[in-house]
């Protein structure tokens, strides 16, 4: 059966396509995941627009693309905040249910973090992702650990 | 793909040799007997232009048509029975099957010239399969041989007429000639047939003949002769073709292929069978085959092919033959078997020692088999299987490579990986040009209902669970990209190797070859391909971020290959998007590479620009310092290209150099008032700008002010220099229309980490609008350099903690939270107009009165004001209330708009009176009065009202610009009634007899029958209920007779002039009586309807004002009350005169009326004469009246002679309704023994005192009848 998921990176992207938080669980390759997150936006936009008005308000967008030993999966919240996770490309089936579960946990983490009354979301694009708010980062790291026992975040 | 032999990759199709189509003046090249290999596409020689012979043009067209039937391609999934046509010469020879001639004794044991067992073979002794074997089957040996030959036709004698007798001699000659030629032709065919038969190749002959020949009766016999003579098959072996057009030729080619496809398949099947036989024989012998001992490794070169190798060979051959036949599944199976066995061979270095020739060949074979398998999967739309096979191929060989010592650290490894990615990409690209589509891999939830057509069902089941991302087929751009990445890795390894060589270590194998490779060109080519494909496959609305990413890689490659100018162009474009979307982590490496490019090109201005931007993006203090040093070095050591002109670095989209924050003290200010502001310029804590030579900072406000210029001056006071927050006061801003330019202000313009400069000042405006800072320009100046950096107010780094706060104290530093969201601008508004609005009126208002409300507006402002008043009468909540307002000739029950009071000069007041009329019911009335004022210049007051109107309407759009003001006032006016009316109504029964049943006059229009309704007497009491005195000027009854009721007379009819006008004070009242005759119809009686009063009273009055005057004339109307229709059933009316004379007989009458609607009445009348009675009566004493039908009456008369004087009672008359008799059993306690039933007494009414009262106050409908004493009537008897 499929091995447990391992997250290489998680990216939260604002509705304006600004990065909120990009958390990498692989040492030394942070920049690559910025690119993965940014390029994923293309596919996310394409997919959410082509599917959006016709059917299903499902947030989960599935596999966006697989490239460079990375499989990028996408998720878009009803408020158009995007979450991208990068999984290492192994030769095994990635079950959608597991990915969706991970996404929901991440979404919830963001939701809880953004419910903080001291954050002024619209002032800075980074919002909860900025270095000032550590709880969100901690939560994301916890999720990564819980999902696949990923390595210690850098 | 070009790195593999084409033979091993192309899609195989049955091969057809076409001979006999040489062009008559054939150039020597086409005449050569060696057939063209399918790889070389030779352009057909130009068709002969001048030849008149239809056959030569036919041949030329045939060549074109046949050659265009099928193109050699790697991707050809369609299985239409197509042949690979190869044009050959007539005398083409096939390669020998074996080296020895068949006559030789050794023939049986000899092998094919390509067999590893043959010494001269390139495969000897242990080769697997060489491309030459495929070439043999695609180019040298056909499955079908088609021979085109010209059928002899005797020349036609032109002069011959059909009427001429046939020349028998000539005919005989002709036949003989034909026979001779046909025999020759048959011999030629037979010779060819012999050769093809040896190989099992089908031979088909196409005879070219003229159209005339087709109709010749002798053709059939000639054809039969030729076939017999040449030994051709009976089926599909002989065709005749006459010169036809191109489209028909294509049809011919099509039918030729259809006819010959089966023989071709048979041909390849027989080959397959042969190979299978060999394989089976071989696999039986394998069991007894002992693997050679490992010690023989040293002499590996002379070792024969291993059984695994034979298996690969046979499986591969069978796969190829199946492919020839178009049997994709069979081919796939055999290829897989061949591949699997090949893997076993690779698994052991004993079988395939690495880095040998055979090893390299086998590797190529494995790669190409992989491509074939992948391709066959893709033909069948099994995309994930295809990709998974390809991936596992790469993985396996990656593993093998490590074992072979060419692991990831070698460029060979990466070169091979790149090649695999590229082959896949090229295959997909070719496929996408025809039939291949790429799935988008959306999750199943997004594709509910959309069934993927090509996917088998079992794959869907797997898909439902999830997806193996590495098996998700994507468009070839991805694989080109991977190939480029691998090539980058290859280059990296190669460079490392080169370094190793320069340090004296051993060079890797293949280094010499690798050195010739231009890696960067290769990488660029791959990236460019990928870029194009990504562009092609991205949707139109996509922002192209993926392509930007590849463009970035391309730019980097250009940078590596030292094409800096091209790289810079890429960087410019990419940076735009990254800046806009604030992906600064990606921007930073881009900027540094860009900077490096600029350095190489020595473009100092670009370098300076980039450095400034990079300082803005600096991560920490050290980085910012280093970058500043670089910048300083540039500024010091170079001169700008465009000297004298400042270099503008626009930081609007990227991170600013300085964080800025603008705070106004109040959000709103009046015209002319000053508002204080503070502008903070700060550096975040992780940035040090102390070395930047900032010369000045220019702060530009919205239009109309001189900009504030801060000039740098080093701090003199040590104490001040140390503080984190510095304050600079700039005072009040100077508007531009003043001549005096403000001085430049000196300030310390060096920022250490976390330092903040607060510029504090004030600003006022003479015009309304929005005031803010438009731009803050930071100017660097050094030597001949001037760099301007415009900043926007309120931008900051992500890390910055700048919040809009007001600096209240420097020592200690204290800030005040302003508690507003947007402090960065201030709105300037006009001062409100000073208007005194006074509303005067005498509450309460009276109903029906035009109640005056005086609006008095006084201008206490200094401006001339144009005043317009709107009045809105709010809808009232009181029931039955009606109301309206009158204002300046306008009348409305709602809104009256735009009543102009004109321009009011300062100190002047204007007055208008508004009238409110309330009627119906008393209660509060509510009025909204809006006074709008617009300031006007005194000069414009002369303009008339006409042109002032459009100005005020247009001012709505530019409301903010026009100095206007609105004052709202709401007043509540209590309203009470002035007069109240109360009614008393009594009804009198009519004495008139009912009209007879057949009375014709009843049907006339003006017939008035009050016999039923009688007369209603209405007494109206009108009381003055107003809180003040009223003068009642007139009272009048307006008659509005209706068919049911009419006013007979009224007390006000008698003109009593001295009654009105008269003053009435609260509580005073007067009365009026009117009689109304009622004439209800029967149906109204039955329906118990009410009759509306036939008229109303109109009271005209005025209010007595406290000042002594009288108010406006008002009119109140009171409608006559609603009248009831009296309800009677059986009634007796007694008509008695009031006065009688003693001893003179006096008649009395009794009328018994049955007014029941349906029941007839049986009535007895008894006159009881008592001895004490004062009368002597003459008439019926006791009797029964005739039956009274409904609506009829009976009249009885008596003569009474009074015998006493005074008020005497008349004798008692008893009227009994027998029908209503009380049954004895129901007697009320009195046991009656009488048989004669008395019945119920009927009411006897004295018409003189018939007051049937009905109080009609407040529409009450309870009719209270006052019963009268029977027989209580009296007569005054006079002597």
Automatic annotation (TrEMBL), chain A:
Gene3D superfamilies cross-referenced by the UniProt entry: 3.30.450.70
GO annotation, biological process: endoplasmic reticulum to Golgi vesicle-mediated transport
Pfam families recorded: Sedlin_N (PF04628)
Cellular-component GO terms for this entry: cytoplasm
CDD domains assigned: TRAPPC2L (cd14854)
Family: Belongs to the TRAPP small subunits family. Sedlin subfamily.
Protein name, as recorded: Trafficking protein particle complex subunit 2-like protein
Organism: Suillus placidus
TrEMBL record, chain B:
UniProt keyword annotation of Nucleotidyltransferase present: no
Pfam families in the cross-refs: Foie-gras_1, Gryzun
Stretches assigned to coiled coil: none
Low complexity bias (residue ranges): 28-42
Span of domain Gryzun putative trafficking through Golgi: 652-916
This protein's record includes keyword Signal: yes
Protein name: Gryzun, putative trafficking through golgi-domain-containing protein
Organism per entry: Suillus placidus
């Amino acid at each position: 059966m499929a091995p447990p998921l391992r997250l290489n990176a998680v990216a939260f992207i604002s509705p304006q396509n600004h990065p909120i938080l990009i958390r990498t669980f692989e040492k030394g390759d942070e920049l690559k995941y910025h690119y993965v997150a940014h390029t994923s936006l293309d596919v996310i936009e394409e997919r959410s627009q082509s599917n959006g008005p016709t059917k299903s308000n499902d947030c989960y967008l599935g596999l966006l693309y697989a490239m460079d030993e990375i499989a990028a999966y996408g998720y878009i919240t009803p408020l158009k905040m995007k979450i991208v996770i990068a999984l290492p490309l192994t030769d095994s089936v990635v079950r959608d249910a597991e990915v969706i579960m991970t996404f929901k946990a991440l979404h919830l983490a963001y939701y809880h973090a953004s419910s903080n009354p001291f954050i002024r979301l619209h002032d800075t694009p980074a919002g909860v992702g900025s270095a000032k708010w550590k709880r969100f980062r901690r939560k994301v790291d916890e999720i990564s650990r819980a999902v696949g026992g990923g390595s210690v975040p850098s | 793909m070009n790195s593999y032999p084409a033979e091993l990759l192309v899609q195989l199709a049955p091969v057809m040799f076409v001979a006999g189509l040489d062009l008559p003046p054939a150039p020597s090249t086409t005449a050569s007997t060696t057939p063209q290999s399918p790889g070389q596409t030779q352009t057909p020689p130009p068709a002969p232009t001048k030849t008149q012979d239809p056959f030569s043009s036919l041949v030329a067209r045939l060549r074109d048509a046949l050659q265009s039937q099928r193109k050699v391609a790697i991707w050809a999934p369609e299985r239409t029975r197509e042949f690979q046509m190869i044009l050959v010469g007539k005398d083409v020879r096939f390669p020998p099957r074996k080296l020895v001639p068949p006559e030789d004794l050794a023939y049986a044991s000899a092998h094919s010239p390509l067999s590893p067992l043959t010494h001269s073979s390139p495969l000897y002794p242990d080769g697997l399969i060489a491309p030459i074997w495929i070439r043999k089957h695609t180019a040298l040996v056909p499955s079908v041989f088609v021979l085109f030959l010209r059928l002899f036709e005797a020349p036609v004698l032109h002069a011959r007429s059909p009427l001429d007798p046939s020349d028998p001699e000539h005919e005989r000659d002709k036949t003989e000639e034909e026979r001779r030629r046909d025999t020759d032709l048959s011999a030629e065919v037979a010779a060819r047939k012999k050769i093809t038969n040896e190989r099992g190749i089908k031979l088909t002959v196409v005879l070219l003949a003229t159209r005339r020949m087709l109709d010749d009766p002798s053709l059939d016999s000639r054809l039969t002769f030729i076939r017999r003579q040449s030994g051709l098959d009976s089926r599909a072996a002989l065709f005749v073709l006459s010169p036809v057009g191109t489209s028909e030729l294509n049809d011919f080619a099509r039918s030729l292929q259809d006819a010959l496809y089966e023989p071709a398949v048979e041909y390849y099947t027989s080959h397959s069978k042969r190979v299978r036989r060999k394989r089976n024989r071989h696999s039986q012998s394998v069991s007894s085959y002992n693997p050679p001992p490992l010690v023989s490794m040293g002499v590996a070169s002379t070792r024969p092919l291993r059984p695994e190798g034979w298996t690969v060979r046979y499986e591969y051959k069978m796969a190829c033959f199946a492919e020839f036949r178009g049997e994709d599944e069979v081919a796939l199976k055999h290829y897989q078997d061949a591949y699997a066995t090949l893997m076993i061979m690779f698994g052991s270095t004993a079988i395939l020692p690495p880095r040998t020739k055979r090893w390299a060949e086998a590797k190529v074979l494995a790669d190409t088999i992989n491509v074939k398998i992948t391709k066959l999967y893709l033909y069948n739309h099994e995309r994930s299987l295809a990709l998974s096979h390809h991936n596992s191929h790469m993985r396996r060989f990656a593993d093998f490579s490590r074992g072979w010592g060419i692991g990831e650290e070698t460029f060979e490894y990466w070169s091979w990986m790149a090649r695999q990615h590229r082959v896949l990409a090229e295959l997909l690209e070719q496929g996408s040009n025809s039939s291949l589509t790429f799935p988008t891999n959306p999750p199943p939830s997004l594709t509910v209902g959309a069934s993927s057509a090509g996917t088998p069902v079992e794959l869907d089941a797997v898909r439902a669970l999830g997806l193996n991302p590495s098996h998700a087929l994507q468009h070839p751009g991805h694989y080109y990209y991977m190939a480029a990445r691998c090539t980058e890795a290859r280059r990296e390894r190669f460079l490392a190797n080169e370094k190793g060589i320069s340090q004296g270590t051993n060079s890797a194998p293949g280094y010499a070859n690798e050195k010739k490779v231009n890696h960067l060109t290769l990488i660029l080519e791959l990236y460019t391909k990928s870029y194009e494909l990504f562009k092609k496959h991205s949707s139109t609305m996509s922002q192209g971020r993926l392509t930007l990413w590849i463009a970035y890689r391309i730019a980097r490659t250009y940078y590596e290959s030292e094409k800096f100018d091209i790289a810079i162009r890429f960087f410019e474009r990419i940076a735009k998007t990254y800046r806009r979307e604030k992906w600064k982590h990606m921007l930073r490496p881009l900027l540094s590479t860009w900077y490096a490019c600029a350095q190489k090109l020595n473009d100092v201005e670009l370098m300076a620009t980039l450095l400034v931007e990079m300082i803005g993006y600096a991560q920490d203090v050290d980085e910012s310092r280093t970058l500043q040093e670089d910048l300083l070095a540039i500024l010091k050591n170079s001169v700008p290209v465009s000297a004298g002109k400042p270099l503008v670095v626009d930081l609007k989209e990227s991170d600013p150099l300085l964080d800025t924050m603008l705070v106004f003290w109040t959000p709103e200010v009046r015209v002319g008032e000053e508002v204080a502001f503070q502008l903070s310029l700060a550096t975040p804590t992780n940035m040090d700008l102390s070395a930047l030579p900032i010369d000045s900072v220019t702060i530009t406000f919205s239009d109309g002010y001189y900009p504030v210029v801060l000039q740098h001056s080093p701090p003199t006071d040590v104490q001040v220099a140390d503080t984190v927050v510095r304050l600079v006061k700039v005072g009040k801003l100077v508007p531009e229309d003043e001549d005096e330019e403000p001085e430049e202000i000196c300030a310390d313009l060096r920022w250490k980490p976390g330092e903040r400069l607060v510029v504090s000042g004030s600003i006022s405006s003479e015009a309304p609008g929005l005031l803010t800072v438009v731009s803050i320009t930071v100017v660097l100046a050094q030597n001949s350099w001037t760099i301007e950096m415009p900043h926007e107010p309120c931008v900051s780094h992500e890390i910055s903690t700048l919040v809009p706060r007001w600096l209240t104290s420097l020592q200690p530093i204290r800030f005040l939270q302003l508690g507003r969201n947007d402090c960065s601008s201030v709105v300037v508004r006009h001062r409100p107009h000073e208007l005194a609005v006074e509303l005067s009126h005498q509450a309460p208002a009276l109903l029906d009165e035009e109640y005056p409300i005086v609006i008095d507006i006084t201008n206490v402002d200094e401006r001339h004001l144009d005043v317009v008043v709107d009045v809105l009468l709010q809808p009232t909540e009181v029931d039955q209330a009606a109301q309206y307002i009158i204002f300046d000739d306008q009348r409305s029950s709602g809104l009256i708009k735009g009543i102009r009071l004109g321009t009011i000069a300062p100190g002047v007041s204007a007055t208008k009176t508004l009238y409110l009329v309330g009627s119906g019911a008393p209660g509060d009335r509510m009025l909204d009065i809006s006074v709008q004022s617009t300031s006007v210049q005194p000069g414009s007051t002369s303009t008339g009202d006409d042109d002032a109107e459009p100005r005020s309407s247009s001012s709505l759009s530019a409301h903010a610009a026009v100095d206007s003001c609105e004052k709202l006032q709401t007043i509540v006016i209590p309203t009470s009634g002035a007069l109240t009316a109360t009614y008393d109504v009594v009804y009198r029964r009519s004495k008139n007899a009912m009209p007879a049943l057949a009375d014709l006059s009843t049907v006339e229009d003006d017939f008035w029958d009050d016999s039923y309704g009688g007369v209603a007497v209405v007494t109206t009491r009108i009381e003055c209920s107003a809180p003040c005195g009223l003068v009642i000027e007139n009272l009048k009854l307006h008659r509005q007779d209706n068919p049911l009721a009419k006013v007979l007379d009224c007390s006000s009819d008698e003109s009593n002039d001295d009654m009105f006008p008269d003053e009435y004070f609260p509580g005073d009242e007067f009365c009026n009586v009117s009689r109304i005759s009622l004439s209800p119809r029967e149906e109204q009686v039955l329906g118990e309807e009410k009759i509306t009063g036939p008229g109303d009273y109109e009271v005209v009055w005025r209010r007595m004002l406290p000042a002594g005057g009288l108010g406006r004339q008002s009119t109140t109307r009171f409608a006559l009350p609603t009248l009831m229709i009296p309800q009677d059933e059986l009634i007796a009316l007694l008509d008695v005169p009031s006065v009688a004379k003693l001893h003179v007989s006096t008649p009395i009458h009794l009328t018994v009326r049955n007014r029941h609607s349906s029941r007839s009445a049986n009535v007895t009348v008894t006159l009881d004469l008592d001895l004490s009675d004062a009368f002597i009566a003459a008439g019926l004493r006791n009797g029964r009246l005739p039956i009274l039908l409904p609506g009829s009456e009976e009249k009885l008369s008596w003569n009474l002679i009074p015998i006493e004087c005074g008020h005497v009672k008349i004798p008692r008359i008893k009227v009994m309704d027998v029908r209503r008799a009380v049954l004895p059993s129901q007697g009320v306690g009195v046991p009656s023994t009488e048989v004669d039933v008395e019945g119920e007494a009927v009411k006897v009414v004295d018409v003189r005192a018939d007051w049937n009262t009905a109080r009609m106050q407040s529409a009450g409908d309870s009719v209270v009848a006052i019963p009268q004493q029977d027989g209580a009537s009296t007569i005054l008897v006079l002597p």
